Amino acid sequence: MFQAFLIKYAEIAMKGKNRFMFEDALVRQTQRALKHADGSFNVYKTQGRIHVECDGEYDYDETVDALKKVFGITAFCPTIVLDDEGFEVLKKRVVEYVGEEYPDKNFTFKVLARRARKNYPLESMEICAKIGEALLDAYPEMKVDVHKPDVFINVEIREKIYLYSKEIKGAAGMPIGTGGKAMLLLSGGIDSPVAGYMVAKRGVVIEAVYFHAPPYTSERAKQKVADLATIISAYCGDIKLHVINFTEIQKYIYDACPKDELTIIMRRYMMRIAQAIAVENGCLGLVTGESIGQVASQTMQSLLCTNDVCEIPVYRPLIAFDKQDIVDISEKIGAYETSILPYEDCCTIWVAEHPVTKPNVNVIRRHEKNLSEHIDEMVARALETREIIEIKK
Ligand code: ATP
Ligand code: MG
Known about the structure:
Blueprint: E1 4-8, H1 16-34, E2 41-46, E3 49-54, H2 60-68, E4 75-82, H3 87-101, E5 108-115, H4 124-138, E6 143-144, E7 151-157, E8 161-164, E9 168-169, E10 181-185, H5 191-200, E11 205-212, H6 219-236, E12 239-245, H7 247-256, H8 262-280, E13 286-287, H9 300-307, E14 314-315, H10 323-332, H11 336-339, H12 346-349, H13 361-368, H14 375-384, E15 387-391
Parallel strand pairs: 5-6, 5-7, 10-11, 10-13, 11-12, 13-14
Antiparallel strand pairs: 1-3, 1-4, 2-3, 4-8, 4-9, 7-8, 12-15
The chain binds adenosine-5'-triphosphate and magnesium ion.
Residues 185-187, 189-192, 209-211, 270, 288-290, 294-295, 297-298, 345-347 line the site of adenosine-5'-triphosphate.
């Protein structure tokens, strides 16, 4: 029934050049998302608007799903495109459309007409008044409310005539590609995919690193992380996933450092390695799924120790979230079912029974010196032997 979609976006912080950058990125991201819907689409911008025109047959549900995943779109409107066959025909079409689209006519409405083509014989005000009249004649239960109507009936006169009234909520945020790039520490858990999604929502391109500890963590655990990256890539776009073999480093820490400090020291090495890959790939910060107090390694004292080795910003979008709120987002973006699959995580294999909850950064730094003989070569080897998986949705 609909031949087009009108894309709405917020226009905050968008003046001059920024506005073009924002709109062009939004057009690109919309095109990317629509590759996953059956149909052929033409995405373009006109003054302050972005339009999707559907070329012939297409799958409506897939298209709506795809558009819902584009950051930067606040809402979109399925639109009927009509040839200009005179005003009488237009009135009839609007009445038909409302008849089909709203089985229950007990609602208030307002007609909004926009005349982008100035040679149209009627002015906007007249168009509104006459279409309003026609609707009231056809459906006496409907009422006009010019201040707070339930439904806006939009009629836009351009070369063709565009008719829309329904608005579907979009993902909001900023289009990917308008905000730099960040390196996500992606594990197989619930939190880090959500953290990546949230930072991507601010327009940031995501690259990811996963610390794998074979044979203690299985191929299936690695596959699970790749699957999670694929799930969030529906929103974030393609993700370059670096898989680091962490076994040797983890074992070395286990042998040389106090058991209750294992997790903290291991996390410091994860941060160091992630940072090296981030800098090498032009990322402006790291992203983790940490949240204050969730586990021993996420108390403020532990976070201080982990953060101690970082020289670029670490973004922790979930820092003040309750677990349930994180789970809600995880479910919403379709990651939860995969996140809870029971494959082992490299962090859980050697965890101490009683990890320190209030580590002291000076003590940790001192104990890390136990590693000085081999750690540099191990880190270099881990970086060199990394596997890179290109995640494309
Ligand atoms: P998640 O649900 O994201 O796994 P978590 O609650 O299990 O988080 P931790 O295991 O303490 O918490 O990890 C904290 C953060 O460190 C994770 O959110 C993730 O960003 C990063 N991280 C942990 N383990 C790994 C790993 N094996 N590879 C990459 N990043 C990791
Ligand atoms: Mg984890």
